[in-house]
Design brief:
about 190 residues, alpha/beta, Rossmann fold, two-stranded antiparallel sheet, globular
Length: about 190
């Protein structure tokens, strides 16, 4: 059975608006595609192990990747490692650059009661999985210029050879994302 792996962003969860929206749409439009959205911790090595396990349990069946924010970073790593297609929504490009602001402070998940504390070792873990784009045809980048959290120009640069959709305005959540769900499925199946 084909699966869509939705990878949420930093301190987010499967309860995020886009994840829920995607799950509901997929259940109606493509009920034979399994929706998978695991709860990821912000600890990179743990997130890496969980994502690898999910992919390796399902191969060689088709697996489609969709990642938002830090989830876009993880989707890139998986797309390169397993030669999978990925839709990236306002992706984090160099998370190791913003992570120092989150070190040694108590962090809370946006949707759960989970709390975390990152250390400098976690930056090394994220650097270890920061990969260049070697399979540009596997990506579709969706960015909005009004992203208040990440500079969209970094994503345009990293994914310069990839399919790109750039919308003026919007925000980090990518307003109106649901407009692209049909096209996402077409992209995945090409």
């Amino acid at each position: 059975m084909a699966a869509l792996l939705y990878i949420h962003g930093f301190l987010s969860s499967p309860l995020s608006f886009k994840a829920q929206q995607t799950a509901q749409w997929l259940a109606v439009a493509h009920p034979k595609i399994e929706f998978i959205c695991p709860q990821l911790t912000p600890y990179p090595a743990q997130a890496q192990q969980l994502l690898e396990s999910i992919i390796e349990q399902r191969l060689p069946e088709p697996i489609y990747l969709m990642g938002s924010s830090l989830g876009g970073f993880w989707a890139t790593w998986l797309a390169e490692k397993y030669n999978l297609r990925a839709v990236l929504i306002n992706p984090a490009v160099r998370p190791q650059e913003f992570m120092p602001a989150y070190l040694e402070v108590d962090l809370k998940s946006y949707h759960t009661d989970d709390s975390y504390r990152l250390s400098a070792a976690h930056i090394d873990e994220i650097i270890a999985v920061d990969v260049p784009v070697a399979r540009p045809n596997n990506y579709w980048l969706l960015v909005q210029t009004g992203d208040e959290t990440l500079d969209y120009r970094h994503a345009l640069q990293k994914y310069a050879c990839c399919k790109q959709t750039v919308e003026d305005g919007g925000d980090h959540s990518f307003q109106g994302f649901e407009r692209y769900l049909v096209e996402c499925m077409t992209f995945f199946k090409q």
